[in-house]
Design a protein that fits this description.
Length: 288
C-alpha cells in the first residue's frame, strides 16, 4: 500500500519536567515499590493478561476517558477532552478523504466511540473489534442506549442502526483477522486503527490482513505513537526503551496500576524531548 499522509499532529510540550507537578504525581515508584514482573510463557499468555486487564479496568477507563479511548487533538486552551477527541477523528477523516456510507473495520474499538461517530456523522457501516468481551458489552449497550433501542439482549453482534449508518461489535484478537474474515469473504473500504497498532506483537501479520481485507483503493487509517526517526543511541536508551519496558511490564501484569502510571510518565518525557511522537497516517491500496 502507498502512504498518502503522515503527519505529526500535536505541538511538543515544554521539556522541563521539574516545573510540571503532573510528573511528580505520576512518579509513584518513590512511594510504592513496583513488584517484579511475572513471567509470560507465550504471546497467548500475554494476550490473556491484556484481555483480563480490560475486563477489570474498562469501567474505570470509561469514567476517566469517556466513550473515546484515545488522545485528543487540542487546538484551543478552552477545548474539552471530548471535543479534542472528536476533532482527532475529524482530522483522520479529513486526511483520509473517506466517502460517506462506506464499510469500515474499527480495530481496537474500545467502547465503540469512534465506531458510533463514523456511523452517525459519516453514514459508515462499522464493525468494531476488541479483544475484550467486557468492552463489547459496553459498546453495544452504549450504542443501543444512544440509538434509543430497547431490547433485552444487548450483547448481540448484529448491526445496530445508528444515524444514517450502523455499528456492530465483535470480540476478536486483531491478529486473528484471517480466521474470522477468510480469504475471498468479507471486504471493507477502510481499516481504521487508533492507538492499538503499537500493542500488536506481529505487526507484519496485521498489515497483511488489512491489505487482504481492503477493497481496491481501500484505505488504512492509523493514529498512534511512534518513535522519531534517526534517534541516537543515547535518545533510545533515555526515552524509548523506558516506554517499551514499562508498557510491556504493565501489560504482563494485567493488574498493576503503578506500572501504567510510570509508563505514561515515560511517554510524556519522551514526547517532551521530541523522541516520541504522535502521528496520523493514511495508506491506500493500489489497483492491481
Amino acid at each position: 500500500m502507498d502512504a498518502s499522509t503522515a503527519s505529526n499532529v500535536v505541538a511538543h510540550p515544554a521539556a522541563d519536567e521539574s516545573h510540571d507537578p503532573s510528573f511528580a504525581e505520576l512518579d509513584l515508584s518513590k512511594q510504592y515499590p513496583t513488584p517484579p514482573p511475572e513471567s509470560v510463557t507465550s504471546f497467548a499468555a500475554l494476550k490473556d493478561r491484556i484481555k483480563h486487564h480490560y475486563e477489570l479496568a474498562s469501567d474505570y477507563y470509561y469514567s476517566l476517558w469517556g466513550e473515546h479511548l484515545h488522545h485528543g487533538y487540542f487546538l484551543d486552551p478552552t477545548d474539552t477532552k471530548e471535543r479534542a477527541q472528536t476533532r482527532l477523528i475529524e482530522l483522520l477523516l479529513e486526511r483520509a478523504r473517506l466517502e460517506k456510507g462506506i464499510a469500515v473495520l474499527d480495530i481496537g474499538c474500545g467502547m465503540g466511540g469512534t465506531s458510533r461517530f463514523l456511523a452517525k456523522h459519516h453514514g459508515c457501516n462499522v464493525t468494531g473489534l476488541t479483544i475484550s468481551g467486557k468492552q463489547v458489552e459496553m459498546a453495544v449497550r452504549l450504542t443501543m442506549d444512544e440509538a434509543g433501542v430497547d431490547v433485552a439482549n444487548k450483547t448481540a453482534p448484529d448491526a445496530i442502526k445508528f444515524g444514517p449508518g450502523s455499528a456492530r461489535f465483535i470480540e476478536l484478537d486483531a491478529e486473528e483477522l484471517d480466521q474470522h474474515f477468510p480469504e475471498g469473504g468479507t471486504t471493507v473500504d477502510c481499516v481504521w486503527i487508533s492507538e492499538a497498532l503499537s500493542h500488536l506483537p506481529d505487526k507484519k501479520l496485521f498489515f497483511q490482513n488489512a491489505a487482504r481485507l481492503l477493497t481496491a483503493r481501500g484505505k488504512l487509517v492509523i493514529a498512534d505513537w511512534f518513535k522519531a526517526e534517526d534517534l541516537t543511541l543515547a535518545q533510545m536508551e533515555a526515552d524509548i526503551k523506558p516506554i517499551e519496558a514499562l508498557w510491556a511490564f504493565a501489560f504482563s501484569q494485567g493488574r498493576d496500576g503503578i506500572a501504567f502510571l510510570q509508563a505514561f510518565r515515560a511517554m510524556k518525557r519522551g514526547y517532551a524531548n521530541g523522541a516520541f511522537r504522535y502521528a496520523v497516517m493514511v495508506f491506500q491500496k493500489p489497483v492491481k
